[in-house]
What we know:
Blueprint: H1 9-21, H2 26-43, H3 52-64, H4 72-81
Amino acid sequence: MNISPYFLEQLRKWFNEDIMMRKLATKTQITYIRGVNKLCEYLQHSVKTTTQEELREFQLFMVTSFRVLPSMPSLRHLSSSSR
Length: 83
């Protein structure tokens, strides 16, 4: 997997630690990381500055592209914890 230049190393480290503390299964961790990476690529900027509208647009993009959609709670968590 190619890591987006917008998925900054510090954020990746924090995100990895957060999902490990939650004791998520390895496949779930990989799926979450891929989801945030796709979000970064879609936005073309770090998720730290993501707005609620951008998250909604990304969700619509994922649905219309027939891709796996991250759950709403995980996106809300990402939005609230990145501020």
